[in-house]
Amino acid sequence: MTTNVPPQPLVTFDEFSKLRILDPAQFEASEQLKEECQEFTTRTGTFNDIIQMFMNLMDEKASQIEREKLQAIGLRNRAEREVDGRKRKHAQMQALIKERQAELDRLVLQADSLQKVQQEQASLIDSMSSK
After folding, report:
1. DSSP one-letter code for 13
2. CA distance 79 to 127
């Protein structure tokens, strides 16, 4: 019967006379894994920096888009007010034209009436002076 008892660690000395628990192949593999982990951590940090820059850029662009959107809304509102203002001004001008036309018609009638009175007075004067 075999029992699965983990092997006892092997204590060795490396080329620099340092005491090692792992055998040299495992030590090399763990050192390589350590370097790869450090490289991965560095790459991850760089990636996070790039993502942060990208997020800052997107926030800036979102703010710029929001400003442009508000400006466009303001311009649209101003254009709509201008259209309404022009319609109101047109209506005022039409009312003024009607008022002036009515005054002109009244003055023309008054002038015609005065001219008639003048002609009647002139013919009365002529008839009185010829007698």
Report:
1. E
2. 70
Quick one: how far is CA 54 from the chain centroid?
Answer: 20
Encoded tokens for 105: 């018609």
Residue 2 dihedral angles phi and psi, to the nearest 5°: -110, 140
When computed from its CA atoms, the radius of gyration of the chain, rounded to whole angstroms, is: 52
Dump the DSSP string for 35-73. HHHHHHHHHHHHHHHHHHHHHHHHHHHHHHHHHHHHHHH
Give residue-wise pLDDT tens across range 107-119: 999 999 999 999 9
Cβ atoms of 24 and 30 within 8 Å: the answer is: no
Strand-pair category, 19-20 with 12-13: antiparallel
Per-residue pLDDT reduced to its tens digit, 60-108: 999 999 999 999 999 999 999 999 999 999 999 999 999 999 999 999 9
